[in-house]
Specification:
Number of strands: 11
Low-confidence stretches: 1-5
CATH superfamily of the largest domain: PurM-like C-terminal domain
Distance between the termini: 27 Å
Radius of gyration: 21 Å
Strand order of the largest sheet: 6-8-5-9-7-10-11
Order of helices and strands: HEHEHEEEHHHEHEHHEEEE
Shape: globular
CATH architecture of the largest domain: Alpha-Beta Complex
Number of helices: 9
Strand content: 15-25%
Largest sheet: 7 strands, mixed
Number of domains: 2
Amino acid sequence: MSGPRSDKPDPDEFEQIAALYRPLTRGAPEALSLLDDAAVIPQRPGFDLVITKDALVAGVHFLPDDPLGLVARKLLRVNLSDLAAKGAEPYGYFLATAWPESHDWPARQAFAEGLRVDGGAFDLILLGGDTVSTPGPLTLSVTMLGWAPAGGMIRRGAAKLGDRVLVSGTIGDGGLGLRAAQGALADPTGELADRYRLPRPRLDLREALRAGASAAADVSDGLIADAGHVAKASDLGLRLDLDRLPLSEPAAAWLQAQPDRAKALLWLASAGDDYEIVCAAPQVLPGFTQVGEITASGLEVVAGGQPVDAGAGGWRHA
């Protein structure tokens, strides 16, 4: 994480803010040049301000030796994924960093460069935050802000009985990507590891979700778990057919090589880190695949036409 140290001392906190983070405000007046302890968010007539927050911890949410530029981009993207599931348009973010002593000035510069790259790609402005030291692992957190039409944010808890359960993109690549990044799975093209290290928030589906989704969530903990969150928040049930999972070519090849197809499908649907969107809608939406239905109660998961025990269905937070 750190390179050879020079005799010149690292910049202090305020020098770091000026050098690394003030450029990320992109001149937005509401950030007050990061010279204050707060920001002033202007109103946007006809829109609600949508706020979400996610954190990443080294060794838990990313590998300790992952390049810090990619870690910074992942930090933004996992938060953008939450906004995408809400049908919200990204606006800006607050950043908190807790740096171990081992992460020196060049490491922090690499992190800030990752923020700059994706801040430009997703039209984000840094509004403020905090930076501290820690004896523990590198810990990073973003509070992300976005705009949704007034009264139109897509909630988890508004699915309707009989809605179809839909998922975007492909499922299982994030979990396989972690294995690939750890060297436990062949990944000759690097596609799987890239899906783990650099999620792709589905902001391109915003209009489809606004037009037709009853409820939605992003797939971070695992498709079964996150679809279950939608059903539970809606006080309804869920039926998922794992044979309908949309799979990438690498995931399909991995599945074909497994001796127990049902068990492998269950793993793909539970592994998490896909950052796709699962939603409930009365009809199939553009960019989505139907994988189940909203029912009156309970959770039913089938593979090969037979019920399977889904267990937790995904990652469980402490």
